Amino acid sequence: MDVVTAEEMRALDRETIERLGIPAIALMENAGRAIAEEVIALCRRRGAGDAGYGAGGGSADGGTRSYGAGAAGSADGGTRSYGVGAAGGAGGGLRSYKAGAAGGVAGGSGDGGTSSYGAGVAGGLESADAEGRGLGAWAAGGGPAIQPRGFSVSADSALTLAAAGAEHWLVLAGKGNNGGDGLAAARHLREAGIAVTLVYAAAPESLAGEAALQRDAAAAMGIPAVVYGRDAVDLAACSGIIDALLGTGSAGAPRGAYAELIAAANASGNPIVSADIPSGLDADTGETHEPCIHAAVTVCLAFLKRGLLQYPGAGAAGHVVVRSIGIPAALARESGVRVSLLTPEVLRTRLQVDVSRRRSPEGHKGTYGHVLLAAGSLRMSGAGLLSARAALRAGCGLVTWALPDKLLPYVIGCAPELMLAPVAGSDGEWHAGTAAEVLRLSGSRDCVAIGPGLGRFEGDTEWLRRLWEETDSPLVIDADALNILADADYSAWSRRHPVILTPHPGEMARLAGISTAGVQRDRIGLALSYAAAHGVILVLKGAHTVIATPEGQAYVNITGHPGMGTGGAGDVLTGIISGLLAQGLDAAQAAAFGVYLHGLAGEHAARKRDNPAALIAGDIIEAL
Ligand SMILES: NC(=O)C1=CN([C@@H]2O[C@H](COP(=O)(O)OP(=O)(O)OC[C@H]3O[C@@H](n4cnc5c(N)ncnc54)[C@H](OP(=O)(O)O)[C@@H]3O)[C@@H](O)[C@H]2O)[C@@H](O)CC1
Ligand SMILES: [K+]
């Protein structure tokens, strides 16, 4: 799934309209219909008592974000799900997101999907038709067992709602194309029997182009309209709100009536469905201006916007569903879009990773590579142990842990699968003279990981420079090794093999020479520019870790759990990435797949606890 900036989105719009000849009004119609379908899907979920998307957004499982794709896609209260295919949506009951040959990308009709046949290639679908009947009404067990019963007809069920009479939605319309999308949605809701009132943020006469056409069509259908500031408006007196105030054409903090409507919508307690992005959000950076809509659902049009993946914007967007509006998906790649959501499909098709982690029947420990880890000190022995154990669990054949010799008695037996290589330290710490010994050990290793629990020591810059320049395999640099780099001017250091840097935001701030808040302001943009400028693979850790390559590609990961904010989780990631590198994955593959697996294991580990706050780094290793 491609992730775009507002500028890239505008270029893709232009390309579609001007080169392909698809009229702008057609795109807007598709956008309006998609928004209406998602509103109806939300009404159905609410009718069914699913509190997953209440007012104020947020997912039901305490933080796992969900992104759906396809028609009427919806996720099940926080479980991440990816739907693909003609009628593919992330169905209400799909839980097939495990990395695996068929995992995570099974298509199926979402609740309220358009077809009784055709969808449902995956087992376990719990989709329902317009009347709320599960597919099981026709075929026990669902899935491909559904048989046509002679002649039958199905209707446009995604745009019908049995309990429409109980609903009254307000459509907050700005004067740009985002407002036009909302006005088109209003007509479809009205068709579904839902009461709708338009609330214009600006005088309706100020709308132009396609938005003006939508205004006139809505008026011709007799949809009631009020103008904010001229007519009385009570945003609490409704059952839901469509936010079509500001989209990708907005700049800066919302002004005037826009700001007042956003604040009132948030205060109303009603669920808000945002068109394209929550109004008040910076579509690129994820910065939330004051005020910013807090959506229950964001119906993102055509391509995922970077701002919806980056916090705090990701927190304001609620459940994000990306809907096709007629812009060919291939255009994004063709026009050089460089950022992707890290899904199992992207891992398989773009990164060519064997996500099944298949083992060869003839394989032996030599088949799966050998990691050398230079890590640990007396004060921080656990970091090295965590990295080493994680590398083994990631599937590599052998791990040698180089450590200061004074540490040896304390770690012998802690992990019997490990090989320990004591180097002559000074009082349990590293010293500059150990570089030659580490280099010697690295000679027959498939990758070298440096940093967890390393500490700082005199001459550490020269020590790291030698390893950087002379090791003959890919390097993973973490923790204190990153701090050594931050204090050095390493741009002149030469390097023949790839380097992966794995900073958390604080370490990234030191590397880039900016504040941590500056790092978090636009993580995707920073990761892309840093990786390109320094010729490294950058893994910028944190919620929605970004993996950027020197060639200018970036991947944004959404596996993971808030419970993973615990000491040692980063050391585990370093081990996983190293373990994958040793098995022959290239640096981009190992970094991306490692981050993905780390998050997935964190989710599994969190689920095993009564309370995810109890999660510790070792649990992530055990869940791999
Ligand atoms: N193009 C297409 O083909 C398609 C586009 N699509 C849709 O269009 C959206 C982009 O539409 P857009 O470019 O018209 O911009 P939009 O977000 O509606 O806002 C512009 C208006 O907001 C105003 N404004 C700006 N900042 C402001 C502020 N801080 N506070 C207050 N007002 C502010 C600004 O007013 P001005 O400052 O110029 O007076 C202007 O009137 C996109 O997100 C998607 O939803 C889809 O239908 C697919 C096809
Ligand atoms: K909006």
UniProtKB/TrEMBL annotation:
Positions of the YjeF C-terminal domain: 348-624
Cofactor: how bound: Binds 1 potassium ion per subunit.
PROSITE patterns for this protein: YJEF_C_2, YJEF_C_3, YJEF_N
GO molecular function, one term: ATP binding
Top-level division of the source organism's lineage: Bacteria
Pfam families recorded: Carb_kinase (PF01256), YjeF_N (PF03853)
InterPro entries: Carbohydrate_kinase_pred_CS, CARKD, Ribokinase-like, YjeF_N_dom, YjeF_N_dom_sf
Residues given in the record as (6S)-NADPHX binding sites: 177-181, 247-253, 258, 276, 383, 453, 504, 571
Enzyme Commission no: 4.2.1.136, 5.1.99.6
Binding site for AMP: K541, G542, A543, H544, T545, G570
Cofactor: Mg(2+); K(+)
Domain YjeF N-terminal: 9-333
Keywords for this protein: ATP-binding, Isomerase, Kinase, Lyase, Metal-binding, NAD, NADP, Nucleotide-binding, Potassium, Transferase
One GO term of the biological process aspect: nicotinamide nucleotide metabolic process
Catalytic reaction annotation: (6S)-NADPHX + ADP = AMP + phosphate + NADPH + H(+); (6S)-NADHX + ADP = AMP + phosphate + NADH + H(+); (6R)-NADHX = (6S)-NADHX; (6R)-NADPHX = (6S)-NADPHX
Binding site for K(+): N178, D243, S279
Quaternary assembly: Homotetramer.
Role, per record: Bifunctional enzyme that catalyzes the epimerization of the S- and R-forms of NAD(P)HX and the dehydration of the S-form of NAD(P)HX at the expense of ADP, which is converted to AMP. This allows the repair of both epimers of NAD(P)HX, a damaged form of NAD(P)H that is a result of enzymatic or heat-dependent hydration. Catalyzes the dehydration of the S-form of NAD(P)HX at the expense of ADP, which is converted to AMP. Together with NAD(P)HX epimerase, which catalyzes the epimerization of the S- and R-forms, the enzyme allows the repair of both epimers of NAD(P)HX, a damaged form of NAD(P)H that is a result of enzymatic or heat-dependent hydration.
Family: Belongs to the NnrD/CARKD family.
The protein's name: Multifunctional fusion protein
